[in-house]
Amino acid sequence: METFLRGSLYITVGVIFLLLFAIITDIRLNIPYFLFIPFVLFAFLIASKKANLEGGDGGGVTDHSGYSYNESGEDE
Questions:
Q1: CB 2 within 8 A of CB 55
Q2: 45-76 residue pLDDT tens
Q3: For residue 19, what are the domain limits?
Q4: Of 5, 7, 47, 59, which has the fewest CB atoms closer than 10 Å, so is most exposed?
Q5: Is residue 36 assigned to a domain?
Q6: Is residue 43 domain-resident?
Q7: What's the domain count of the chain?
Q8: What is the CB neighbour count within 10 angstroms for residue 6?
Q9: Mind telling me which residue stretches traverse the membrane in this protein (predicted)?
Q10: What is the pLDDT of residues 28-38, one digit of tens each?
Q11: What does pTM read for this prediction?
Q12: What residues form DSSP beta bridges with 75?
């Protein structure tokens, strides 16, 4: 989830940057799909690399390595 949100944030920031650039320079930007799609994939790749460097995305699963259980599966 964190990777998806970070990738979406990167794409949103990029679109805002392009919008501001187009407004300031008073031009119309046409970005073809064969250039747009790799940039979207690159944004999510960078987001996943950053999430992996920070310890990864837990996905809501808790770490039970600190618990000790007996053979019946109950807490000791």
A1: no
A2: 998 887 777 665 555 455 555 555 566 655 55
A3: 2-53
A4: 59
A5: yes
A6: yes
A7: 1
A8: 19
A9: 7-25, 31-47
A10: 988 888 988 99
A11: 0.62
A12: 69
Please tell me the predicted confidence (pLDDT) of residue 65. Answer: 58
Residue 32 lies in a domain: yes
CA angle in degrees (0–180, nearest 5) for 6-8-9: 60
CA distance 39 to 62: 33
Two tokens at 7? 């990738």
Please spell the DSSP secondary structure of 7-49, one letter per residue: HHHHHHHHHHHHHHHHHHHT------HHHHHHHHHHHHHHHHH
Let me know if residue 15 belongs to a domain.
yes
| The two structure tokens encoding residue 28 | 């119309």
Q: How many CB atoms lie within 10 A of CB 61?
A: 7
Residue 14 buriedness (CB in 10 A; 0-12 / 13-18 / 19+) = middle
Measure the CA–CA gap between 58 and 52, rounded to whole angstroms.
10
